[in-house]
């Protein structure tokens, strides 16, 4: 993992922990922790939006996309982005986060559709972080486009198998 990612992780988790914010990290970062070998582009964090007001003052100088509602063909949510010393961090309100399926025909409320298992607390680069469960990560990534998603799904599925995690029939390929 790149040094800028490690520094950003320590910084953001420190703020979230100091404010007792429940969060979980997903996306490519979580996939990397679970064994995907592609580079980490950003750190995707979901948390209840009611905590935005508590944490934004400490993050203000690093905000690259202001807090607000964002919507396109794939995503519909409240959130904001940070640029911390070269590392992008996306923070999204889990209570508003919706994503469409690959065909752009159906919307999912992610907190209801991809939250089958509790978060995983795991040591990453010397700190404890809250990650999306690998089984939920696989289910979620199945609805995303791109070859990199297939790489992540394969790596995380291997992690699930290697760690003898119980799998529901709808979660794995």
Question: Can you tell me about this structure?
Answer:
This protein has helices at 3-18, 27-33, 52-59, 110-113, 134-141, 147-162, and strands at 24-26, 42-47, 63-71, 75-84, 87-93, 98-100, 107-109, 120-124, 127-131. The radius of gyration is 15 Å and the shape is globular. It has six helices and nine strands. The two termini are 27 Å apart. It is 34% helix and 29% strand. It has one domain (3-162): Beta Polymerase, domain 2 (2-Layer Sandwich). 33% of the residues are buried. Strands 1, 2, 3, 4, 5, 6 and 7 form a seven-stranded mixed sheet that branches. The chain has a two-stranded antiparallel sheet with strand order 8-9. The chain is α+β, with helices and mostly antiparallel strands.
Characteristic terms for this protein:
single chain, Beta Polymerase, domain 2, seven-stranded mixed beta sheet, two-stranded antiparallel ribbon, 9 strands, globular
Q: Which CATH architecture would you pick?
A: 2-Layer Sandwich
Characterize the main sheet.
Answer: 7 strands, mixed
Rg on CA atoms, Å: 15 Å
Number of strands: 9
Tell me the domain tally. Answer: 1
Q: Decide which structural class fits the backbone.
A: alpha+beta
**DSSP summary: helix tally:** 6
Helix content: 25-40%
Shape assignment: globular
CATH class: Alpha Beta
State which percent range the strand residues make up.
Answer: 25-35%
Q: Which oligomeric state applies? A: single chain
The termini sit apart by 27 Å
Query: What is the mean predicted local confidence, pLDDT?
Result: 89
CATH topology: Beta Polymerase, domain 2
């Amino acid at each position: 993992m790149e040094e800028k990612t490690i520094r950003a992780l320590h910084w953001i988790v420190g703020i979230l922990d100091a404010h007792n914010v429940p969060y979980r990290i997903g996306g490519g970062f979580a996939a990397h922790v679970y064994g995907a070998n592609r580079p980490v582009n950003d750190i995707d964090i979901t948390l209840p939006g009611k905590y935005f007001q508590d944490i934004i003052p400490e993050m203000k100088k690093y905000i690259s996309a202001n807090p607000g509602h964002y919507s396109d063909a794939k995503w519909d949510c409240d959130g904001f982005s940070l640029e911390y010393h070269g590392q992008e961090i996306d923070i999204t309100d889990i209570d508003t986060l919706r994503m469409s399926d690959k065909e752009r025909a159906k919307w999912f409320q992610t907190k209801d559709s991809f939250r089958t298992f509790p978060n995983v607390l795991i040591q990453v680069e010397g700190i404890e972080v809250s990650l999306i469960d690998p089984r939920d990560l696989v289910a979620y990534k199945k609805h995303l486009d791109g070859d990199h998603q297939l790489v992540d799904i394969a790596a995380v599925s291997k992690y699930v198998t290697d760690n003898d995690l119980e799998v529901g029939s709808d979660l794995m390929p």
